Automatic annotation (TrEMBL):
Membrane-crossing segments per the record: 48-75, 81-103
UniProt name for this protein: Membrane protein
InterPro entries: Phage_holin_3_6
Swiss-Prot/TrEMBL keywords: Membrane, Transmembrane, Transmembrane helix
Record's keyword annotation contains Membrane: yes
Recorded superkingdom: Bacteria
Source organism of this protein record: Acidovorax temperans
Amino acid sequence: MNWLALLGLDVMVARWRVAAIEGAIAVEDRMELAKLEWQDQKRYIRRVLVLAMAVAGLTVVSMVMVSMAVLIQFWDTPYRSVAGWVVAGVWLAAWLGLLVALLRTVQRAEDGFPLTRRELAQDWRDIKDML
C-alpha cells in the first residue's frame, strides 16, 4: 500500500523531486559558466603578466641607456647636475605612469566573472520571488 498516494503527498514529493533535479541542472550550468569564465580570466592574467614583464625589462634597459647618454653628453658642462636631476625626474615620471597603469589594470580585473555573478543574482531574485 502506497501511503504517500493515499495521503496526497505523492504530488508534493514529485514536485520536490523535480525542483531538486532542476536545481542540480542549474548548479551544473552555473559551474560550467564559472569554469569558462575562469579560463578567460586566466588567459587575461597570463597575458597581462607576460606583457608587464616585457615592458618592465625593455623599460629598464632603455631608460638606463638614455640616462647614460644624457649624463655623458652633459658631463663636461656646467649643466651636469641639472642633467642628473632631469634624468631622475624622468625616471620618477615613468614610475608614476606605470603605477597608474597597474592600478587601472587591477581595478578592471576586479570585475571578473560578470556572467556568473549576473546569473547567480538572477537565481537569487527568482528564489526570493518564489518565497
